[in-house]
Amino acid sequence: MLSLRSYAVGRWIEGTGTPQLLLNPATEEPLAQASSDGVDLAAALDHARRIGGPALRALSFAGRGALLKSIAQAMQAHRDELLDLAVANGGNTRSDGKFDVEGAIATLFAYAEIGEKLGSAKFLVDGEGVQLGRSPRFHGQHVCVPRAGVAVHINAFNFPAWGFAEKAAAALLAGMPVLSKPATSSAMLAHRIMEILVDAKILPEGALSLLVGSPRQLPSLLGAQDVLAFTGSGDTAARIRALPNIISESVRVNVEADSLNAAVLGPDVEPGSDMYELFLTEVQRDITQKAGQKCTAIRRVVVPAAVASNVRDDLVEMLGAVRVGNPALSEVRMGPLATAAQLADARAGVQRLAAEGNLAFGSATPFAAEGVEAGTGFFISPVLVEFAAGAAASAAHAHEVFAPVASLLAYSGEAPEAAAIVARGNGGLVSSLYSDDAGWIEATVFGIAPGNGRIYLGHPKIELSPGPGTVLPQLVHGGPGRAGGGEELGGARALAFYMQRVALEGSRPVIQKLLGTQPG
Amino acid sequence: MLSLRSYAVGRWIEGTGTPQLLLNPATEEPLAQASSDGVDLAAALDHARRIGGPALRALSFAGRGALLKSIAQAMQAHRDELLDLAVANGGNTRSDGKFDVEGAIATLFAYAEIGEKLGSAKFLVDGEGVQLGRSPRFHGQHVCVPRAGVAVHINAFNFPAWGFAEKAAAALLAGMPVLSKPATSSAMLAHRIMEILVDAKILPEGALSLLVGSPRQLPSLLGAQDVLAFTGSGDTAARIRALPNIISESVRVNVEADSLNAAVLGPDVEPGSDMYELFLTEVQRDITQKAGQKCTAIRRVVVPAAVASNVRDDLVEMLGAVRVGNPALSEVRMGPLATAAQLADARAGVQRLAAEGNLAFGSATPFAAEGVEAGTGFFISPVLVEFAAGAAASAAHAHEVFAPVASLLAYSGEAPEAAAIVARGNGGLVSSLYSDDAGWIEATVFGIAPGNGRIYLGHPKIELSPGPGTVLPQLVHGGPGRAGGGEELGGARALAFYMQRVALEGSRPVIQKLLGTQPG
Q1: How far is B78 from chain A (nearest CA, A)?
Q2: Residue B227 in contact with residue B255, Cβ under 8 Å?
Q3: Interface predicted TM-score (ipTM) of this complex, two decimals
């Protein structure tokens, strides 16, 4: 069986000890094994800091951007092979796999372009210079410089390519070396990408390392100049944040965690209208794409009570038409969950929802999927749980079920009630609104804005509308509260996490000479 | 005796239980007492969130800025009374008191001006709009909106006026209500400011509350929309950051903690030159101003070995001329420390330094101050501890002594060694460089930048040079690692902490209408 290796201190390292098995989640066939035991984590971090950091900082943004472009091109050249791994090890349909792999490539290209635009500089000038005293001689100028540590990235199982790429793109462009830790269950894709990059000798030594298997004590080894970006469950994030060194060294930690993303239908939208159809299409896509295993997927479908039964009936019909099974079959539209543990969690979550609402579609019971032996694979049907207006629905607002599961919640149609319902999620990555009523949109947008990192306004005239579940490199990804309080992407905004802002204060000619700017 | 009261839920509340005594630290005369027992903290937070937040968010930036201007003017009208309290309760000389009180007023005026410039908007448009699809119709625009919670400010004892004002200015301008908790030992000044503001009816109800006495479980009551800004010791900061709700709710916490700020003399600077004299003046000011109780004070004086004895002799002479005693006397230049506990800490710190280096000036032994009864008051002499080039000096780089105490460290004069010495502080608020050698400045600035929030470049031609110890509202204040990883001030940058950035995504005309912008 294939043994995945870690890549650190400039070489491949095979783990010792008992490895974890990586399966095909549709067939449960073992595909590979991985262990991080025996990898000297302190040496890996030290190598990245001492060798990788200086090499990246010696490059301009354009130079670092060129590296990202080469990474994207190398991935593109191996696209079909990567998609095959997404299907086999990720339980992805080919379309799901493209969402991950092509999303990764597009994000790398987007950051390559930002690097090209930032040009020959090695650090960022932040804002305008300011006169500090009575005479213009006393001058201040902020700059952002790369941090001198290592960027540790702990990624979730659902996007092994995109999660790797979107975090690495920002860190490498900022000038920080990366140690990337994919979730073990779906690590074959990230591992193969690393092999491709190492074989192509794209990056300077120490700029990019990969740890497969358990992270072990990795977060405990970070110091004041290091940063940690984590995507995964709120529970794991909480354990990381509470580590003594993370607290005492003020290690920057960015978290993307749980989110009960809401899609809200406005009171003006009539069944059958273009806006209504768009709403249904995007809800259905978010429930079933990647079997609902997207942190940005719509979990709460909030509709006016007057049309709740229409929405229910239409969604039930649409979900019923989704073919669920082995994603290696071209006619299948939804694959399995990633692991047996995820399936158990999802079933428990559906039971929690069903205890308070009504199962309008699907259930927690074992599901007979297409194209696999009966009882094989981590399959669950799409699930829609319906709640009457005013129902407590406490589980619907408090527990993210990371699966093709959504709650349908009726409300009055009034903007303040919509905002109050969205706020019960206690902070989210994205909420989406579907309405043509400018007054309702304004009241609802500003009502929900403090609790969301992104607000998507559905509109049928947007060509190839990606829906709220798609994260774009130009827009920030992250959200307050339950979502982890983090922020990634957003174009050049992403660099800030990997850089130290410094105020330079002194004589204007001295500072201008230092920064290479001309006197004004 | 005066009983300080808290101001919450729109009224003054006297604490119950055993109060803490507030003293004159020069005479140890009791001046007031304070207790927060019996104050319903949950009700105070709830009132701020429900009443204060909406009232502030209903105002434009210009409207909030006008409130700040009124606060500044009210403080200005009571300036002499406030200075008297700084002397009596803070142990400040009149000059120290001005540094605090006038710094507070200037910062409020600076943020009032920012509010005026931001004008009639109630939220910030962040960056340019971006085209997201093939057609310009699919559009993205980031905005920053006020958070819907309360901003809790826990301030340090050393700047009861400025600490209150600089934090409140940013939060109120952003649109968040404030609950301010001054350090109890020196709370008379913040308490009097609150009285002045309440009497003048400047702020909307719930916009500003004051808690005197222990914070009790205040940080444990915060949720996802609240923020906490803390200035004080790293130990207390660590306890706050580890609280379960702070972690699970992703409560934003900004920390300004310990910092071993370094002042580095370049190898080109000759004794007797203008740059050399400026360096001495600013080091001496930072050691003695507010008896060294400034988070930005120079703690490590790093000089080329070739001139180390000159610097030592000159500083010893200058420190010897400083009259230490009751700050109520006009001839006194340095007052006592704030409390008996601070004095005990400072003495222990001096002993730690002296165990590794040589006491060039002063000591940890009890100090006979001017104008007080022998043995009265929390006085310590200025202290300079000298270390030879290459000495381990581990305490000098690891323990902030919050007192008129500095370490004098010799180095080769080479920029990389200077950077390595500065980096041993593991993150700082500010470092200062004194040199006319552009090459040395460049190498040292970029060597130390990742570890510092601010870099001050001393220059004798800057009129009224404030030195590195003065925090200006235009420049960010905060630093990585030991300094807490926080960031305050920096002009409009300060607002970000109190606001949620949200990406708006959708049809361009819809978003432009929503934001009131005209189609381009």
Answers
A1: 26
A2: no
A3: 0.97
